[in-house]
Amino acid sequence: MTLQDNHAAGAVVAARVERKWAMVSVAVIVLLAGMAAFAGIHQATMPQARVETADPTTLHIAGEFVESNLGSALEPDGSVTVRAVAQQYSFTPQCLLVPAETPITFRASSADVVHGFLIQGTNINTMLVPGYVSAIPIRFDKPGDHLMPCHEFCGIGHEGMWANVKVIDKAAFLAMTSAHRRLTCVE
Ligand code: CUA
């Protein structure tokens, strides 16, 4: 076998290996495209997520988010619903009071632009979009204080927009509900 024959044989092997790997990469692309198509079609056949709306122009005047209805409310089933409104550049109420070891649902909306809703030390992290209600369930295991900064740029005063969440003992919270229909920790 001459050196040239050897070279030609090597080229044949190289071409075969390259073809094989080209087919593998084509197969990977076809598989991924197929998965993307399946996921898209599958999702399109699912029902829409539940969407609740709230008119941002009348948020303070009518409906669920009037000022007298904001704060924490004890529900007949023992759970607590906390309602809040975000506006440039504050949250109302400024301090949310909730009991520990209790199922809690935060319900909030925005009166103007998109704001962020994040409670530090928890997995609550969403956006408040004008026109829509954001509802998030949570349960706090123990009393404590959490910061609630707006984490969505909402204008010149964004960096100063934050509230507090104060988690207190469940018995203490329940004792307060007899005197107040809506609870907050705003002084
Ligand atoms: Cu509100 Cu940033």
Description:
The radius of gyration is 28 Å and the shape is elongated. It contains two helices and ten strands. A hairpin with a 5-residue loop joins strand 1 and strand 2 (80-87). The termini are far apart. The strands form three sheets. Strands 1, 2, 3, 5 and 8 form a five-stranded mixed beta sheet that branches. Strands 4-10-9 form a three-stranded mixed beta sheet. The chain is 27% helix and 28% strand. It has two domains: 1-46; 56-177, Immunoglobulin-like (Sandwich). The chain has helices spanning 3-44, 170-177; strands at 71-74, 80-87, 90-92, 95-99, 104-110, 115-118, 125-128, 134-138, 144-149, 162-168. The protein is α+β, with helices and mostly antiparallel strands. Bound molecules: dinuclear copper ion. The site of dinuclear copper ion has 10 residues, from strand 6.
List the helices and strands and how they pair.
Elements lengths: L2 H42 L26 E4 L5 E8 L2 E3 L2 E5 L4 E7 L4 E4 L6 E4 L5 E5 L5 E6 L12 E7 L1 H8 L10
Parallel strand pairs: 2-5, 4-10
Antiparallel strand pairs: 1-2, 2-3, 5-8, 6-7, 9-10
Radius of gyration: 28 Å
- Number of DSSP-assigned strands: 10
Order of SSEs: HEEEEEEEEEEH
- CATH topology-level name of the largest domain: Immunoglobulin-like
Query: How many alpha or pi helices?
Result: 2
What are the main properties of this structure?
187 residues; alpha+beta; Immunoglobulin-like; 2 domains; 5-stranded mixed β-sheet; 3-stranded mixed β-sheet; 2 helices; binds dinuclear copper ion
